[in-house]
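Sanity check

After download, print the first record. It should look like this:
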Amino acid sequence: MTKPFQVWVFGKKGCDKCALLNQRLDKLLADDAWSAFEKKYWDVESEDGIVAFCESECVNPQRIPAFLVARLDEKTGAYAPVPNPNPGNVEPPCGHGRLYSFLGMQTDYSRQGGGVITPKMIAAILGEALPGAE
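Expected structure tokens:
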């Protein structure tokens, strides 16, 4: 069954933080509360992955792993990134890792960000995609 949302994860082989983001996302999506979402992983070292990464036009290549939320267009059957309803918002829990143009996150490698995307951050972003979320 096609889900209304996909979470596009951008990562690469051998990246511990990429593996951790995938594990956290898999665990979260196993919960019925997030049944509207499925994960789509893009290896940025593959041809398809780098094309998808470039087409997203919003992730800094130095801040991988990253993810964004895409919504199914029922007319076309294609997924498209969900616009960020609050561009420029750097409030916790997502902070400076939040993507500007689309609903998603990239890794904040600053001392403050610590290079970690927590389950709380992931849930906050996914929650914004759901109908009625503000």
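If your output differs, re-run the checksum step. Summary of this record's structure: The mean pLDDT is 92.
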